[in-house]
UniProtKB/TrEMBL annotation:
Span of the signal peptide: 1-26
Membership in a protein family: Belongs to the bacterial solute-binding protein 2 family.
Name of protein: D-ribose ABC transporter substrate-binding protein
Subcellular localization, as worded in the UniProt entry: Cell envelope
PANTHER family to which the protein is assigned, alphabetical: D-ALLOSE-BINDING PERIPLASMIC PROTEIN-RELATED
Domain Periplasmic binding protein span(s) in chain numbering: 36-291
Principal cellular location given in the protein's record: other
InterPro entries, alphabetized: Peripla_BP_I (IPR028082), SBP_2_dom (IPR025997)
Higher taxonomy: Bacteria, Pseudomonadati, Pseudomonadota, Gammaproteobacteria, Pseudomonadales
Alphabetized UniProt keyword annotations: Signal
Species in which this protein is naturally found: Pseudomonas kulmbachensis
Origin superkingdom: Bacteria
Alphabetical list of Gene3D superfamilies matching this protein: 3.40.50.2300
SUPFAM superfamilies: Periplasmic binding protein-like I
Length: 321
């Protein structure tokens, strides 16, 4: 029977599809043809260095080329680095961003250039521009730290809170988590709350001023371990190392203090290495298949580290054995 014109068209379309599929299968995916750009805050903070090192190691193990860059928590530098990544034909960007609002433009720029961005540690206040936002469960983290802190000080006394960078949504979420617990305890009173911008030197300087005005404090909650280290040093120099200090991150120097004589008693260990590894695993899947099969927003619980389990923290911190 003679085929109609439409049947001929259908046969040709089917043949073209089969040839295209065969051709696509014949093209082998080569990770070495792809560049993964990893952008974080300064590596002088061990947390960010652990993120970058883990992502680089995972990428190189899979065969990708990498470029690790630092934005110094400056949105303008971050935007320039993203533009550089675009110019270098990066296949994916792994980013611990420089601010939840101020980073939106940079992530959008990458998306417009067809480059998927995998955010770790810090989210942005926008949906649909990043391929993934893999962040610590900061609320759970802060709540668990605050509960431990309250127990250690006997559920009473004056305390101090050092908060992180005001432009960082994580700083606000952690502070809210602290107060969700402590504001319910009538015999506990916050006598000072001040930002030290996630910085150890600022944590030291701020704490020095606070000690002079508040000699009777029983404890300090720091929004991250870097500030906790600064606060602990200031307390020690003032001869006041019996004050309980807690932080959040999983910094190896803090873990050593927890395992030893203190005064830092606990940290909410953010699993930086796990988040970075997850980002690289999902970037690899996306580049190979065009999807990750994961939701954009992903939350990773923290682990409360005290003297009892400090030996289980991996060497270098920021992960459990």
């Amino acid at each position: 029977m003679k085929k109609s014109f439409s049947e001929h068209l259908f046969s040709l379309a089917a043949l073209s599809a089969a040839l295209y599929a065969t051709s696509a299968l014949a093209v082998e995916f080569k990770p070495s043809d792809h560049l993964i750009v990893i952008i974080t805050p300064s590596h002088s903070n061990a947390f960010y260095k652990a993120e970058s090192d883990t992502a680089q190691a995972a990428a190189k193990k899979l065969g990708y080329r990498t470029n690790a860059l630092v934005h110094q928590d400056d949105p303008d530098i971050q935007l320039r680095l993203v533009q550089t990544a675009i110019g270098d034909n990066a296949s994916a960007i792994i980013l611990d961003n420089a601010g939840s609002d101020s980073s939106i433009a940079a992530v959008k720029r990458a998306k417009e250039a067809g480059i998927p961005t995998f955010l770790i540690d810090r989210e942005v206040n926008a949906n649909g521009i990043a391929t993934a936002q893999i962040v610590s469960n900061n609320s759970q983290c802060a709540t668990s730290v605050a509960e431990f802190f309250a127990e250690q000080v006997g559920f009473k006394g004056e305390y101090v809170e050092l908060t992180g960078r005001t432009s960082d949504v994580n700083a606000h979420v952690r502070s809210e988590g602290f107060h969700r617990v402590l504001d319910q305890i009538p015999d506990m009173k916050m006598v000072a709350q001040q930002s030290a911008n996630w910085d150890q030197t600022q944590g030291y300087n701020v704490m020095q001023s606070i000690i002079q005005a508040n000699p009777n404090i029983v404890g300090v909650l720091a929004g991250n371990d870097t500030m906790a280290l600064g606060a602990a040093a200031a307390l020690k120099n003032a001869g006041n190392d019996k004050v309980i200090v807690v932080g959040i991150d999983g910094n190896p120097d803090v873990v050593r203090q927890i395992a030893g004589a203190g005064p830092i008693a606990a940290t909410g260990l953010q699993q930086a290495t796990k988040m970075a590894a997850m980002a690289m695993e999902q970037a690899d899947q996306y580049l190979r298949t065009g999807k990750t099969d994961k939701p954009e927003k992903q939350s990773v619980d923290c682990v409360l580290v005290s003297k009892n389990n400090s030996h289980q923290v991996r060497e270098g911190g920021f992960g459990m054995q």
